[in-house]
Specification:
The protein is α+β, with helices and mostly antiparallel strands. It folds into 5 domains: 60 residues, Helix hairpin bin (Helix Hairpins, Orthogonal Bundle); 230 residues, DNA ligase/mRNA capping enzyme (D-amino Acid Aminotransferase, Chain A, domain 1); 76 residues, Nucleic acid-binding proteins (OB fold (Dihydrolipoamide Acetyltransferase, E2P), Beta Barrel), CATH 2.40.50.140; 162 residues, DNA polymerase, domain 1, CATH 1.10.150.20; 68 residues, BRCT domain (Rossmann fold). Helices cover 36% and strands 19% of the residues. Strands 16, 17, 18, 19, 20 and 21 form a 6-stranded antiparallel β-sheet that branches. Strands 2-15-12-3-11 form a 5-stranded mixed β-sheet. A 4-stranded antiparallel β-sheet has the order 5-4-9-10. The chain is flat. Bound molecules: 2-(butylsulfanyl)adenosine. The site of 2-(butylsulfanyl)adenosine has 16 residues, from strand 3, strand 9, strand 10 and strand 15.
Length: 684
Amino acid sequence: MEHTLFTADKDNTLMERISELRETINKADYAYYVEAQPFLSDREYDALFRELQDLEKEYPALIVSDSPTQRIGGEPLKEFETIIHEIPMLSLANTYSRGEVEEFDRRVKEGLERINPQYTTELKYDGVAISLRYKNGRLFRALTRGDGERGDDITPNVRTIRSLPLKVKDVEIDGVKISDFEVRGEIFMMKDDFVELNREREERGEKLYANPRNLAAGTLKQLDSREVARRPLKIVCYYLFSDEVKLRSHDENTQILSRLGFPTGSAFQLCTSVNEVFEFIEHWDEKREALPFFIDGIVIKVDSLAQQRELGFVARSPRWAIAYKYEAAKESTKLKDITFQVGRTGVVTPVAELEPVFVAGSTISRATLHNNDFITALDIRVGDTVLVEKGGDVIPKVTGFIPEKRPENSIPFEFSTQCPCPIKSTLIRPEGEANYYCDHSECPWQLKRRITHFASRDVMNIEGLGEKVVDRFVELSLLKNIADIYDLYTYRDTVFPTLERWGEKSTVNLLQAIEESKKQPYARVLYSLGIRFVGEGVAKVLAKYFRNIDALKAAQKDDLMKVPEIGERIAQSVVEHLNDSSEWDIIVRLKNAGLRFETNEEDMAVLNTTLEGKTFVLTGELSIMTRNQAGDEIAQRGGKVSGSVSKKTSYVVAGENAGSKLTKAQELGVTVLSEEEFKELLQL
Ligand code: IVH
């Protein structure tokens, strides 16, 4: 039935239901993302969300910009529009010492003709500054800082941040409702989320982000807001401006922000003296390591807005606020040696072996030197006193050296292009890459990491075959490659009983765990092989499109690249690995040992999430299958079926005599599939 045929009454009930859904979802978002006190289960939430999505899909005229469904992103933009800030976005002057903070306090008091001000202190989040304009209580526009005068309109991206209200709660100040205002805040990412996203990128062979701030900034620059919606961005708000109501102090403003539904900082203090400011600074200097996100300092503001106005601005910064920046946790120490670490895929990373030094809460004796180019560019030498930093990055790194402390007899660091392992094979540097690799399949160093990876929980899950045991077995030559694991049983009565600190029970448990691992699905087995750039996700894709190892081996680079998600780098690496005779021997041995090298129907069902996030509209008379069957096939793969065509429809499947829906799809540029093409998409 068409929407226009609805009676006023039905429209009312429909509107009521839609408002009710939006309200509940908004409340649930707030409870989950801001208060961390969810009141709905994931399932309940998803059901309400889906109901709202379906209703909006059916009645697109009822979609409003602040509906929670608008958080999942829309069509990619061509470019961001640059817009002038209504209030310029200034930055804060930085201070680095107690003395400079005292100096600030003196200047403030002078400016206020010796009235003692109150200060507020809060954390300085290490993220990306954002200006949010609300009109009529609704998020109207989000601008980046840009050059302070004008910024990029990234509203669709910012909308995806679940903790940000698209519509604020009712708040009255002196009897006036606040609805037109500007909020400033910082968008950032949690340390854990950063590590996880980088891990996924590494799996896909993509470039890694250096720290959470870069990742947040990179995400916000994406033109495709649907991609942004998949990244767990967080926001914290620390500034409110409105000329509709009388605002008095920063402390009060922060409370108003909270009441409006904005997330505000997790630490905030009103200080009556500069000593309290110092206490806050010291407290967080000690505690900041333990925070789940990075901060790079503390922001100190004069609390009273009247006093702020009195103090005004100097150049590009306010006189009423400063940032106290923590040292980017940096220490200097002696570089004793440069060693090389070999990862499971053969990547060789130079590591700084340091005289142990205490940096930001922990003792560091090793730090990354990234790659050979980095060492050459900085001319870092063994014997140097180097700077070690633990800042916005999770892994400590060497950032430079102190020239005055360089020993006279020091010589530039000489690279060896040999693997540091006993085999000493020649390292290779693939074109366009900064890393060197050892590509010897029996390199014991690589092997240790490869076997540990193979046996780890997320891969073949062989309990009892952890790092220490693997190192020991490799050194005893019991393991020379991953296939040897499945021959370990031959040592049951010979070697194992002679091992120290290794009892009968260890043997039994280990052999049992090895036996169990043979049940792991093909995708896991593919992942376990340690093919460069083939992480868990890629392995699943390969296992789905090439359902057994022979099919995969027969595939040429071009065939592999036809698969979505498989780029040239991965394709090349797969072809090389499977065509290497010693790697292939290992695969054959694993296969003979009983590991699974084939995807069966059951695995397939698990792997089939190809249509996740895709919406289908079925129209016309289908002949190959019924509508219900088609719907089931779509649902099994994670897709959805909808009754009407909109811009958000992914595919329209058109059978015989398709009518208005087909025309609409063509008008909107939605992909239309014939039944045959649909079948192909389902891989039936
Ligand atoms: S107040 C007019 N408070 O640090 C001053 N800024 O250089 C408005 N920042 O651009 C800024 N946490 O990106 C303020 N609690 C906080 C902050 C904060 C991080 C960032 C912000 C600003 C820069 C100052």
